[in-house]
Amino acid sequence: MRKSHPVRRTVLATAATVSGIVLLLSLKPASDPGSAEAAGGAPPAAESVQGGARPIGDGTVTGDAAQTQYGAVQVRLTVSGGKITKAEAVQAPKGGQSDQITSNAVPRLNQAVVRAQSADIDAVSGATYTSNGYKESLQSAIDKARASAPADTGNGGGAAAQAKTVTGDVAQTQYGPVQVRITVTGGKITKAEAVQAPKGGQSDQVTSNAVPKLNQAAVQAGTADIDAVSGATYTSEGYKESLQSALDKAGG
């Protein structure tokens, strides 16, 4: 029998080596760090502190009232720099034993919100109904604040500077309706005006004196927490009520 030629053995060995290399390359792990990016994938983005991809908008916003077995609970938030800086209950159960429960539970819930920066807070012992109502209204307020946050358009914050005008609900007073319209730019009140105010007789003088002061105060404060004008208590209260409604509609 004829022995294999040395050249043939060399060719066969080279072919085997190439086949082995090809096989090894085909077994490269799919979990290679660059494989996801090469396939068009990307690591999931980190969520915001408030538990969502979208941050919450600055300003003051009031959640929907939550009805409980012992009365309504309604929460108002103040947001600055995308963080909750203040939480307060503008409505809470009252009367009888509820007064004691509310005075004990609400301050703790307010503090918990600022710490947690979300509605994921523990109920206060002995105040389960109040706590659950508080959390429900709180989530509503956070949802409203998040909805008001300007979308990131990638144009250097142009969306945040876009002005929007919103009119509050009409507030009925003893001397006539009051309705406030505000212009919000970059999350701040840049203009406030009364589109309705008491008129006729002495009301004309009271309105002409009070409304400009209230408009100026609203812009300076950036909230509905402004002082009443002396001698125009009813007009001032109606103005503040409609102003808060406008702020809620604007998202803070």
From TrEMBL:
Residues 69-145, 174-250 form the FMN-binding domain. It comes from the Bacteria. Pfam families: FMN_bind. Residues 32-62 are annotated as: Disordered. Residues 32-48 have a biased composition (Low complexity). SMART domains: FMN_bind (SM00900). InterPro entries: FMN-bd, TAT_signal. PROSITE patterns: TAT (PS51318). This is Uncharacterized protein with FMN-binding domain. It comes from Streptomyces thermodiastaticus. The lineage of its organism: Bacteria, Bacillati, Actinomycetota, Actinomycetes, Kitasatosporales.
